[in-house]
C-alpha cells in the first residue's frame, strides 16, 4: 500500500470515512467457471487484499468486511473448515504488510466458538497493530448484528443491576458504547456485491444512516475501480440524517456515541 499522503491529491474529496463491505458471490463466481467453491473464496481473499490497499490509498479511515457470519455455520463442514483456513492464512501472510502500512486490525463477532489457534491469531493481529493510525480494518468474523445488539443489552442490564448505570439514563450512546464497534464511527457507505440487496444481519444498528451501493459483480471481481465507482456514487447522494438540508458529513459518532 502506498502512503495515504502520496495519494491525497487523487483521493475523491468525498471519500467516506467508514465503508462496510458485504463480500458476496464467491460461490457463484466459482460455479460459473466450473470451479470448486473454495477457489471462489481464495479469489475472494485476493479481492480483499486489493480492497484494503485501495481503501487506504483513497483515504478511507475505517473498512469493515463481513468475512463469516454467525449464520455461516449452516454451511457444509468442509466449507467452514476452508473459510477458517483462509482466515488463518490471511492473518499469517498479510499481518506484517498491514502493520507496515500502519493498518490497525480489529475483529468484531463472537470468539467463543472459534478454535484456540484462531483466537490467538486474532489477538495477535489486534495487539500488534493497536497503535496504528493510517486505517482501521475491521474483520467481522463469526459476526451477527442481532447477537451483538442482544449482548450489548445484556451488558446494560448487568450494569444496571450492579448500580453502574441508572436505567432511566440508558440511551443510544450507552448502548452504542457496548457494541463490538465501540469507538468506531458509523459506516457512511455499505457496499454489497453479487446483486443481492439485503443487509444479512450486518451492522444493523450502525447502518441507520448509511448509504447503500449494490453491485452486480461477484466479490472475486471487485477491485480498485469498483471501489472508486461506489465512492463516486456515494458522493452523488444527498445525506440529510433526518433533516431537510443535505449534510456533507455526520458529526463524529453522532448516532451511537461510539
Ligand atoms: C460470500 O460468498 C462470502 C463469504 C461467506 C465469505 C467471505 C469470505 C471471503 C471473501 C474470503 C475469506 C476471507 C477471510 C478473511 C476469511 P458466498 O459463498 O456466499 O457466495 P455465493 O452466495 O455465491 O454462494
Identify the notable features of this structure and list them briefly.
alpha/beta; Undecaprenyl pyrophosphate synthetase; binds farnesyl diphosphate
Would you write up a description of this structure?
The structure is a single chain. By secondary structure, this protein is of the alpha/beta class. The protein has a single domain (11-234), classed as Decaprenyl diphosphate synthase-like (Undecaprenyl pyrophosphate synthetase, 3-Layer(aba) Sandwich). Helices cover 40% and strands 14% of the residues. The protein is built from 8 helices and 6 strands, in the order H-E-H-H-E-H-E-H-E-H-H-E-E-H. It has helices at 4-7, 26-31, 37-57, 77-100, 116-129, 145-161, 172-176, 224-236, and strands at 18-22, 62-69, 103-108, 135-143, 189-192, 211-214. The protein has a 6-stranded parallel β-sheet with strand order 3-4-2-1-5-6, with helices on both faces. Strand 3 (103-108), helix 5 (116-129) and strand 4 (135-143) form a beta-alpha-beta unit. Helix 3 (37-57) runs parallel beside helix 4. The longest helix has 24 residues, at 77-100. The two termini are 28 Å apart. The site of farnesyl diphosphate has 18 residues, from helix 2, helix 3 and helix 4.
